[in-house]
Amino acid sequence: MCLFCKIINKEIPSNIIAENDDFLAFHDINPKAPVHILAIPKKHVDSFIEVSPQTMSSMTSFIQEITKEVGIDKTGYRVITNIGDDGGQEVKHLHFHILGGAKLKWGHFNDSDPKNNL
Ligand code: AMP
Asked: What's the pLDDT tens digit per position in 23-47?
């Protein structure tokens, strides 16, 4: 069983923000911003590659609700899902990073010369 499935089953503790029948949101253990939440589907899906449009539809509403709950819906935030090896995905269970609470820089990317990002 994968790490996030264990979190869903409460076999591993997590700092839960919101939960319903289909989704779970909890604080990232290694936050990269003042607000760093992970939103995941309870049904195991490896990554965005395999997720259905139906799940994404309700996932969108879930993420929007969380941002209201933690008070970043008006100030802005970033939603990221890393996909596969090149995308830097470490946990192979679809998850959306919700980052906010500060003006975010553009990650590790160099905006001045896109070639430096390769
Ligand atoms: P990714 O690199 O996109 O796969 O992101 C995985 C994320 O899971 C990272 O930001 C980790 O800090 C986070 N993470 C790993 N283990 C835990 C855990 N037990 N509880 C909360 N977040 C975790």
From this structure: 999 999 999 999 999 999 999 999 9
